[in-house]
Amino acid sequence: MPYKQLKKQQMLSAARRLFTEYGFEKTTMQKIADEAGVGVATVFRYFPKKELLIIEVVKEVIEEMVPRFEAISESTQSGYDKMDAILDAYINYISSANRDAIILLESFEYYIAYNPMEEPLTEEIYQTYTKVERIIDQAIQDGIQDGSISLSSTEQMNATTILNLFGTAIKKHAFNSLLSNVIVPIPTKEQLLQLKSMLLLYLKNASRH
Fold this sequence. Notes:
The chain is mainly α. The protein folds into 2 domains: 3-48, Homeodomain-like (Arc Repressor Mutant, subunit A, Orthogonal Bundle), CATH 1.10.10.60; 57-208, Tetracycline Repressor, domain 2, CATH 1.10.357. It has helices spanning 3-22, 29-36, 40-46, 50-63, 66-73, 79-95, 99-114, 119-146, 153-176, 189-205. The longest helix is centred in the middle third of the chain and has 28 residues, at 119-146. It is elongated and about 60 Å long.
């Protein structure tokens, strides 16, 4: 890895550790510099403002999921089986030992709600999320073409809506599972798996009823 890229990754890794432990607001550029073992001027040279670091770290977390989904999408399975495998991969990624990913994704949503960012920065996050969405959409289209998924155009919109809610439910479940005391009811792992089964059943049979 070239020196500049290595140095940049060193600062990103330091920022990710600190953002996970202390949150976005309490983590200063000086703390990141100290954690990375560089001068704060070096951090500002690579990332002129903290928001740029935040965006890069969150993009990194999201993109870690992409290769898993791409491998499934490029397999020879039916579209239905691809969707089954993708949903399992998403549940397993978010619900497993990826504590920092869970915290960062959930914390980022709260952070930007109270600290609005410039549109070009939030657009970067949106484009990163759409990589995952495109893979899922392609799996659905593959299933429609091979006959393993039965959806009209209206039903495809319904399926997308359910998928978005499914993703939100997984993140809420994973984040709250890290807390010792949970006040707000959250979906259990069993409920998530049941929702997955209901979604797959819809994909397979919607237009047949």
